[in-house]
Amino acid sequence: MRPLVLTLLLGFPLAEIALFIVAGELVGLWPTLAATLLAALAGAALIRRQGVAAMRRLQASAAIEPVPAAAAFDGAALVAAGILLITPGFLTDAIALLLLLPATRLLLRRRAWGYLRSHVRVATPAGDPTIIDGEAVVVSETDRPPPPSLR
Fold first, then answer.
1. 93: closest CA among 150, 35, 45, 151?
2. Residue whose C-alpha is closest to residue 91's, from 19, 4, 22
């Protein structure tokens, strides 16, 4: 896992720099900078507009289903796309554009759920997922110990 993270941390910025150089050679400095600025503005607008819309969908889904995981995942993916668009670079912009596509989000959501199902185990009493076992204790002000400064 560590070599992958190291490769990404070093390789990703180098790839972005290489793409900037290639784009600068193909279309020139000012169009390259203008494209980067436009992508950042689009990302900011996307976060503002889609973030609010995603929160509304999440609230609407929460009223219908107990855990609105799909709406939460889509909202997080849209916010991530906006952040990637704000980040300077053509590679991050391409990833952001992929996240904006509903089909891409659906594919990622299915892969994430498959991974979680195979790697995360939830223990419930007697195997019944509707039972939540717990205890509650009422604590009043008189039951609390004094703060360390008053001892």
1. 35
2. 19
Neighbours of 85 (CB within 10 A): 26
**Cα angle, residue 39 at apex, residues 35 and 17 outer, rounded to 5°:** 65
**Tokens of residue 132, six digits:** 């939540």
The residues near 149 (Cβ < 8 Å, ≥ 6 apart) are none
Question: With helix as H, strand as E and coil as C, how does the chain read?
Answer: CHHHHHHHHHHHHHHHHHHHHHHHHHHCHHHHHHHHHHHHHHHHHHHHHHHHHHHHHHHHHHHHCCCCHHHHHHHHHHHHHHHHHHCCCHHHHHHHHHHHCHHHHHHHHHHHHHHHHHHCCCCCHHHCCCCCCCCCCCCCHHHCCCCHHHC
| Position with higher pLDDT, 135 vs 118 | 118
Q: Read off the pLDDT of residues 122-136 as tens digits, 9 standing for 90 and up.
A: 665 555 666 666 777
Cα 114 from Cα 73, distance rounded (Å): 14
**Which two three-digit tokens encode residue 75?**
């909202």
